[in-house]
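Second attempt. The first submission of Heme chaperone HemW had a stray character pasted in from the spreadsheet, which I only caught after the job came back as garbage. Lesson logged: always re-copy from the clean sequence file. Corrected sequence (379 aa) follows.
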Amino acid sequence: MTHRQLGLYIHWPYCAAICPYCDFNVYRARGADTAPLVDAILADLAYWRAQTGPRPLASLFFGGGTPSLMDPADVARVIETADRLWDLEASVEISLEANPTDAEAARFADLRAAGVERLSLGVQALDDPSLKALGRFHSAAEAMAAADLARQLFPRLSIDLIYARQDQTLAAWQDELMRALALNPDHVSPYQLTIEPGTAFARAAARGRLKVPDPDLAADFYTLTQDVLEGVGFDAYEVSNHARGHDNRSRHNLLYWRSQDWIGVGPGAHGRLGWGGERRASKALDRPRDYVDQVTARGHAIDELETLSPEAVRDEFWLMGLRLQDGLPLADAPRPALSDNKIRRNLEHGWMWQSDTHLGLTAQGRLLADAVIGDLLAD
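This time the job returned cleanly.
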C-alpha cells in the first residue's frame, strides 16, 4: 500500500449569485456576517485534528461557493491554524477558487500574501453572450485581465472552462480554447456542460428553453478538447483536467482520485478518513447557520458519519481512480476484487489497458468513461 497522504478541504458556501448550472451547497452572500462562520471553521479544524492525530498536510484547498469573497485576513487565519494543528508539508499545495470579477481580482495580491500559491480561476467562457447565458457576472475582458494579474502574482494558475454549451460550434470552441491558452495557464479544467437536477438549467431544459449538444456532438467537443490541449503540451492526466507538466497537476484533486485521506470543513463539506483499518465518510451540515450553531454546541458540525462497506471502498477506488491517465496500482486495489470477466471484456474492446502493475482506461475508454466504469462496478 502506498503512503497515505492527508488533505484539507475548506468549503466557503457564499456566492454573489447562484449560477444556473450549479448544484453545489451554495448560498447568496447578501451581506451576511461571515465572522461567526470563520470562527466555526477554525473550531472545527481543532476537532478534526483530535481525530487524525499528528499528520502533515499535503494540500489545503479553499472551494465553494466563492472563497475569493473571503476576507484575505480570514484565509490567512485558516492557513495559519491548519499549519499550527497539523504542520504543512514543505511542498504543500494551497489552492483557492476565484471568480474573475474586478472586485475579486482586487483581492488577489492579499490572497497571495495570505499564503495561497495556486489560484483556480472560474473563467468558464470567453465571450460575453455565453457568460451571460451561464449566469456569470464577469465579462470576457474582465476574465482576461484577472488571468493576467493572477499570472503575475501566483506561482501556479488554473482556469476552468465550460464547453458543449447551447448553440456552441466546434470552431468557436477551438478558437476559445486557443484564446484561453494565450493566458498562459499551468492547468486547464474544461468541463462539459451537464444539466444537474434541481438547477435553473434543469428547469429551463424541462420547458424546452435550453438544449445542449447530443451525445455524438458532445463527444466531438471532448475529442477536440483533448487534441487542442495535447497539441500544445498539456497532459490530460484526468478526464477533465490537463496540466502543463507533471508538477502542475492538482495535488489536492489527486488525493480524491487516488482514494487518499482528506478532511472536509465548512457547510456541506465531505471528507474521507481511514480509522483503524476502516474508511469513514463524513459530511457536514449544509446550512451555514446550522453549521455555526452545531460547532458552537458540540465542537463539530458532522451531519453524517458512515463506515464504508468493503464494496463501497472498492467502488470509490475504481470510480475515481480510473479517470486518471496513469491508471491505478493493482497492489492497492481493495477487496473484493473486480470481475476478471468484465475486465477482460473491456480489454478486448480496447477500452482498458493493463500492465504488470496498473489498470486504466485507454483514450477510447476515457471517452466512454462513465459507461465503462459503470459496467465494471455493476452487480
